[in-house]
Structures are given as C-alpha cells and as structure tokens.
From TrEMBL:
Belongs to the amino acid-polyamine-organocation (APC) superfamily. Amino acid transporter (AAT) (TC 2.A.3.1) family. Residues 1-24 are annotated as: Disordered. It comes from the Bacteria. It comes from Streptomyces bugieae. Residues 33-467 form the Amino acid permease/ SLC12A domain. This is Amino acid permease. Its main location: membrane. It is found in: Cell membrane. Residues 7-24 have a biased composition (Basic and acidic residues). InterPro entries: AA-permease/SLC12A_dom, Amino_acid_permease_CS. Keywords: Amino-acid transport, Cell membrane, Membrane, Transmembrane, Transmembrane helix, Transport. The chain crosses the membrane at residues 35-54, 60-79, 99-121, 141-162, 174-195, 215-239, 260-280, 300-320, 347-367, 373-397, 418-438, 444-463.
Length: 483
C-alpha cells in the first residue's frame, strides 16, 4: 500500500486501522506472535554480549539493563499506537513515509533492510563460531553457508513455517533462562554445588561496590545493552501477516516489561549472585561461566546450544523482515518493481532471495577473517537498528499531534505518558549515540553512517528522476492511446 493510497483512504477503513490487503497470508497466530515478541528481546546480546558489559560495569550492569528496558518499553508502546492506527507489513518504514515524508520512509526501509542483512551476517557468523565448540575441524565458513541455505529454504515454504520455527527457537531460549534462574536460586538458598559456599546476593556489592567501575563505566555499556534489545521491534513487521493484529499485537507489546524483568534483570541478578562479576570476561558467555562455576560440566554445552539457536533465530528473523521491507519499498516506487512479486504462498521470494545473496557475503567474510568477522559488523548493526527506533518515536509524535487535532482517528492503544515518554526515549538514544562516539570500538559505526546517508541521498534522487520520467512517459502515451 503506497503513501498516496493512504492519503486517499484515511476517511475509510484504512484510516480506522484495518489492515490493508497487501497480498500476504495471515498465517501467524497468537502463540507464534507472542513467542516472536519474546524471542526478539532475547538474543546473543544477552547470552554472549553481556559478558563484556559485566566486565566493564560490574553489578551496575543490572541498572543499565533496567533503564534501557524502560526506554524499549516506551518505544514499543509508541509502535503499538501506530500499529493499532494502521497495521501494515511495512510498519515503521510506512509510518515514516506517511508522517515524516517519502525520503524518511525511503531511508528507513533501506536502512532497516541493511540492518537485517548485517545482523544476519553477524548471527550466522556467531552460529558458525558456536559449532566449533563441538567440532573445531569444521571450517567456520562451511557452517555459515549451511545455516544460510537452510534458513533460506524454510523462508521459501510458508510464513506459518517461519512462525513455527521462531516459536521453538524462542522456547529453547526461554526454557534455558528460566532453568538457569531456578538452578541459581537453588545454589544461593540451599548452598549445593561447587559455588554453594560463596554464592550470595552480597556479591552484588561486596567486590568494589555496586558501581566498581564508576558511573562512567556503566554509561559506556549502554550501546552494548542497546544492541542486546535490537530486533524487539520485529513484532511490528509481522502486523501484515498476523491473524488478528488488533488483539494479538497489544498483548505482545504489553509483555515487554515482564520479559525484560525476568529474562534480563532477573537472570543477571541471579548470575551475579552465584558468580562474582570479576570472573566474567569479554567474549565468554556469562551463562557458560556461571555453569562452570557451579560445577555442571554439561551446562556449558547446553548454553552453547542455546546461544546457537538464538543466533539462528535472529538470522531467520532477518530473512523474514528483509523480504517484507524490500517489497514495501517497491510498492511505494522506492525500489525495483520485481520485489513486489509474491509466490503462490504469499511470500516475497524475490526480496528474500536478494537479501540472502547479500548475507552470503558473510560466508566470504568468515572465510577471509574468521576471527574478526563478528566485530566488523556488530557496531554498524547497532546504529542502523536505532534509526528504526528514532523513526518510530518521531512518527508516533507526529501521528498523536494529528490525531489530537482531529485530522486522524485516535488509536485504540495509546502510548501512556506520550509525548513525554517518546521525547525522553529520543533523548536517551541521542545520549547513547554520543557515548558510541567516545568508545573507540563503537566509533566505526558513526564513521559509516555519513557514507550510508550519502548513498541514500543519491539513491533517492535517482529514483525520483526515474519516477518522474516514467510519469511523463505515461502522460504522453495516454492521449496517443485514446486517439
């Protein structure tokens, strides 16, 4: 559905928030949407990246996750307000196009597409690394290639199969975290295992205090923590294929607080009470370290399997979302027309196929630089993912202003505290971007951003000229055909 169609139909069902006919099959049920929402907030950023964050901030990392989690909830409620106004598969790209202008929609669509391509490379790289835990004889690039091809095949069959796979991927992650929390509580309260004599909640402040690296150390972890939550907005992309979006999506969004409270804050409190924060190191999963400290030899292998499924889940989500984003761009004249084609099963096969071809570049990266591949792409994924959040918040502010003036219908799922919560979230994201500029390891993404912006500007001008030329040609042909 194009922005022009939106303008023409605001007084009808589309403006009332009913899903437009985009050609997709509504094959994602409540059970799958709920688990996609849960899984989107649990990934390698928690299972693997938290190790570096803990070493940088100590126990205060719990506070960092709590604050960022609150900001994420504000973002998701802003997205929910927009989704109940008009649930479309293009999601925030479409909202950016409608409320912030066609150029912002263009940039958002292509940037989010690039985000998932880059993230897909990152996660396939991580998955290939995890395989070497069991068999170091398998080249990293071979595992990356196998995973990429297998997930692509799944995404070609049906959206229902995608949803089912995501359901079970998320189930593995949820079960693992709950199991870790229960085991940790048992170690702390009952004192069993090798860590039973030292495990205590006092570990949260007994080794240098709650802020052993100072407030500055905690602030420097914010971009790592933000990366952990990237993809939580994926539930918005599923709107066009949810069986009952007005009922399912609000439920999924409202579970964000308890998901963050249990799976992030709860898990970290228990882990840091079982093992002193001084034990954790960058590049080592805190879950693996905790199991080793407890003395469960099989625990490390179990966690490695869990983080493998987390990485594959993220890569699977990337293949799903990239095809939808490219089709949304094409429908709005901002991408090649062949991306609009759907398979017999209602799948954007062309968009997904081209995206996977780009992800295969990750296989080459694994072949060339197997040790550094993950670090090369993770920082750019963070800044490009945050752009989607910025557009969501700005679009929601513009929509709310128009709705309050009576120009658009009010959403049935208003963001509480808006506009103040949305402005606060925007200010927080701006602070994190500044902190990324201070961090030498994350600064590379800020160097890449202006280059991408230039590419977007040139690309938009070329598309505008092409569309103008096509419109002029149609105008000339019309009188001739009538004559």
């Amino acid at each position: 559905m194009t922005s022009v169609q939106v303008d023409k139909q605001h007084d009808g069902n589309e403006a009332a928030g009913k899903a437009p006919e985009e050609g997709y099959q509504r094959g994602l049920g409540n059970r799958q949407i709920q688990m996609i929402a849960i899984g989107g907030a649990i990934g390698t950023g928690l299972f693997l990246g938290a190790g570096k964050a803990i070493s940088m901030a100590g126990p205060s990392i719990i506070l960092a996750y709590a604050i960022v989690g609150l900001v994420i909830f504000f973002i998701m409620r802003a997205l929910g307000e927009l989704l109940m106004y008009r649930p479309v598969s293009g999601s925030f790209s479409e909202y950016g196009r409608e409320f912030l202008g066609p150029f912002i929609g263009f940039v958002t669509g292509w940037t989010y597409w690039l985000f998932w391509v880059v993230t897909g490379i990152t996660e396939v790289t991580a998955a290939a690394t995890y395989v070497q835990y069991w068999n170091k004889g398998i080249p990293q690039w071979v595992s990356a290639l196998v995973f990429t091809v297998a997930l692509f095949g799944i995404n070609l069959i049906s959206v229902k199969l995608f949803g089912e796979l995501e359901f079970w991927f998320s189930m593995v992650k949820v079960t693992a975290i709950i199991g870790m929390i229960l085991i940790g509580i048992g170690v702390i309260t009952l004192g069993f295992s090798d860590a039973g004599d030292t495990a205590s909640f006092t570990l949260l402040w007994s080794h240098g205090g709650f802020f052993p690296k100072g407030i500055g150390g905690t602030l420097m972890t914010l971009q790592i923590v933000m990366f952990a939550f990237l993809a939580v907005e994926l539930v918005g992309v599923t709107a066009g294929e949810a069986t009952n979006p007005k009922k399912v999506l609000p439920k999924a969004i409202n579970t964000v607080p308890w998901r963050i409270g249990l799976f992030y804050i709860g898990a970290l409190i228990i882990i840091l009470s079982v093992v002193s924060w001084t034990v954790f190191k960058p590049g080592v999963s805190p879950f693996v370290a905790a199991f080793q400290q407890i003395g469960l030899p099989a625990g490390a292998g179990i966690v490695n399997f869990v983080v493998l499924t987390a990485a594959l889940s993220s890569a699977n989500s990337g293949m799903y979302s990239t095809g939808r984003m490219l089709r949304d761009l094409a429908l709005n004249g901002q991408g090649p027309k062949f991306f609009t084609r759907l398979s017999k099963n209602g799948l954007p096969t062309w968009g997904t196929g081209v995206s996977v071809a780009m992800m295969l570049a990750g296989v080459w990266i694994n072949y060339q630089w197997p040790g550094d591949a993950f670090n090369y792409v993770v920082s750019f994924a963070t800044i490009s993912g945050m752009w989607a959040w910025i557009v969501i918040l700005l679009s929601q502010l513009r929509y709310r202003a128009k709705a309050n003036r009576g120009e658009l219908p009010q959403s049935e799922f208003k963001a509480p505290g808006s506009p103040y919560t949305s402005v606060f979230a925007l200010a927080f994201i701006a602070m994190v971007i500044v902190m990324m500029g201070v961090d030498p390891d994350a600064r590379i993404s800020l160097y890449a951003a202006p280059v991408w912006a230039l590419i977007m500007g040139v690309g938009y001008l070329c598309i505008q000229r092409k569309n103008a030329a096509a419109a002029a040609a149609e105008a000339v042909e019309a009188p001739a055909n009538q004559g």
